[in-house]
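Follow-up to my earlier ticket, as requested here are the two runs.
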Amino acid sequence: MSPIPKISPGISDEILRVANSIIDDYDKDRAIDNMDGMFCQPDREIIFESIRNLLRIIYPGFFSSKTYKIYNASSRVYVLLEDVQFHLSKQIAIALSYGKNLDEQSREQNQQYAEKITLKFLGQIPKIRAYLEEDLHTAFDSDPAALNIGEIIISYPGIFAISIHRLAHELSVLGVPLIPRVMSEYAHSRTGIDIHPNAQIGHNFFIDHGTGIVIGESTIIGNNVKIYQGVTLGALSTHGGQALRNKKRHPTIEDNVIIYSNASILGGETVVGHDSVIGGNAFVTKSVKPGSRVSVRTHEQQLVDIREKAKAADPKDECWYYQI
């Protein structure tokens, strides 16, 4: 067994000096120095585990848990719901109190209110599952690479992201602060798909591939909409900063629209009319009439036979034999 390495006295003294300098830096009364929230802010790991338990409820045959050894469906759902109710309500109560100096009575009232919100949220699970059932069938019908619905549930990042979004959005509608954003960022970190919890998304929503998709806070998406990787539904400008809070900054996408990869649709007044198709790499900042086809004229490509060029080239010359 290797001996435990010892820190030399010189390094130990230097670490103590650095630690003291950092502690002194905490005394500058900046936002970054605030430690009041250390024990009174939501716990991300508890929220993440609540998300996982909610997915186990929504997709009972696909997300298992090593913690619960109950295989009777009703018992398993009851235990999972009880777990989510207990932990999520506490996190919601903390979020409701965040940044406020509440007395003990107010904190107790907050907890009771959080418990009611959580129960109301859990009561929406059948509705959320109905939306996701439609999303799943739309994904399967739209993707010839999909073998079956189970494959989509288990492995498709788009379904994972939209499942969490529909949960987060429901909490946001109920007026819960902070928690929905933590949930959306969990999906973002896992999939590369960034959907703000306030974004409104209709029935039969399909995300293909998904990486790099951004859907902003005030986006409204209708029914039967399909979007591909790299799409941005964003704000035209954020120079106004906090003055733009609660303003419609993001586009409206009407029913039966397809948006292909790397397209950007920007602005709160921008409306993509129903039954339109937005081609790849398009940059849309003005409204599009229903039934439109928006495309980007491709650059002219020149193809060169490298082998013929190589025969004629001087071996001493370093050059490229293609153009883009």
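Run two:
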Amino acid sequence: MIDALFGSKTRVKLLNLFMNSPDRTFYVREITRKIDEQINSVRRELANMLEIGIVRSDSKENKIYYGANKSHPFFAPLRKIFTSKEINRDDDDENAVWVKRFYTVGDVKLVIFSGKLVNDFDSDVDLLVVGNVSKVKLGNLVKIIEAEKDISVAYASMTYEDFYYRKSVQDQFVGNVLNAKHIAIIDNEHILENGK
């Protein structure tokens, strides 16, 4: 629905990036990697957004960096739209569908959506699956997620024992996932109770 409202999937992804990282700037190739869109459509939409004034640009080290223009009169309302759960009013229903799908890949204990799956474009991982799972079935499910959400998904899986150990020794990878913006779609062992 929001794509229709804003007229372009690339524009929506750019707004999502800028409104969820208002204090950061990005160069074009970095943007294309983060939102997984073609460079020409990114450049076209950036030019449109610069003309409107919702995006600003700065030149550093022979690169042009783009970021949100926080002084634009529409910055606050756009930020509210793109950081609100109301964008996906059907999140709970959608999550219920994902729960069923993840149970088909094996004995799943924990599934965490992070990164692009929760509109956080600074995370290195978008999906973490914990449990005894079929790598093939998980890979196939990731392909479905990528097709439905029109993004590329960086994912990792590990056994419950491995995850529990890594969490207990404050492993950097697990810590980065848990300290970043995330949603636990499945948490059968209540691993993440009390916030972490």
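The only thing I checked on run two: The mean pLDDT is 85. Let me know what else you need.
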